[in-house]
Amino acid sequence: MSEKYSTIHYHNYLELDALLSLQKERSKALGEAAHDETLFIIMHQVCELWFKQILTELDSVILLFREERVREDNMHTVLLRLRRVNSIIDLLIEQVKVMETMTPLDFLDFRDYLFPASGFQSWQFRMIETTLGLREEDRLTYHGKSYKIVFSEEQKARLTDIERGGSLFDLVARWLERTPFLRFRGFDFLSAYKEAVERMIARDQQHIRDSELSPKMKEMRLRVLGDTTTYFRHVLDREEHERMVAAGEARLSYDATIAALLINLYRDQPILNIPFQLLTELMVIDEGLTTWRYRHAQMVMRMIGNKIGTGGSSGHDYLARTAEQHKIFRDLHNISSLLIPRSALPDLPEELARGLGFHFRGDE
Ligand code: HEM
Prior knowledge:
Keywords: Dioxygenase, Heme, Iron, Metal-binding, Oxidoreductase, Tryptophan catabolism. The protein has 18 helices and two strands.
């Protein structure tokens, strides 16, 4: 066998001597050895290894998305890697159970040795959040200070760099804005969609008026429908949308939102199916991380009740609030409120429908 492919033993390939010597229990070194500290260290180390793998996948996806035109064959790779991220997040959620085999009393045997170490200081976790698109202004503040204060200058600089437009959220938003199908030879998707919404609402109003309901019930249902009409008009108006973005109520630009809407409505068209799957995977990542945050918060409640965390936060309360507040792809979830039934969708011109098969070229 050539020098290049010289053999290697399993043990050496995986650097097991180094890896297995990294569990250094402080209770053993500084006082009385606490049995469960090994589990506590291994659980965190395993999480950090998975964080590393998640970052490897996200970084590669970002590289593919940076290209001016995201190539279709790359989209398959992107999907596979995002699915891998989601499988890892599922594992992270599942393994909280293993941590919970430690009882609160056993934790107290060594908790004092940890201060002030905390998951707060997990740079890889912050990199995952930031790479996905969580910005400084979206975060709960840490005693009024930046979450970055616990990191080195180099680590802070990496996080700031991504925050300035290099996140997956930013790249996906730009990709959506470039969607070529919004206008096609006289077919204006948005106008057709707005008309379809108006038609659907007029039909629903007529159903209510023709129904056997009491006048009071009819009035109430018509009022609710009126609110829906206002909602649709509100969201589909460019100026109103821009106002929402400026006020922090929405994050995706108007054009990106409309493109995401089109992809969701016409996802059965072959060319829009992969973009639809991509948007879905991003939402699944958000859901998975939210579930992990809740799961971790629940575990923390069991372990330390209402005590403050070793990192100085309010503990369970802080963690439970991050679950709601630190969502990243909220705008994609909100698209569901704009969906209308397939039966009410405007028909696509035949030429466009044919084009949305596998061979669409925007400049044809
Ligand atoms: C007995 C087990 C655990 C307890 C009691 C615990 C407790 C806490 C607490 C109280 C916080 C809030 C920050 C603070 O004030 O310290 C926190 C944050 C965090 N923990 Fe844990 N944790 C445990 C296990 C784990 C494990 C196994 C991981 C896996 C890496 C982990 C990852 C994190 C991360 C990433 C944060 C930051 C969350 C954020 O700020 O959004 N924790 N933990």
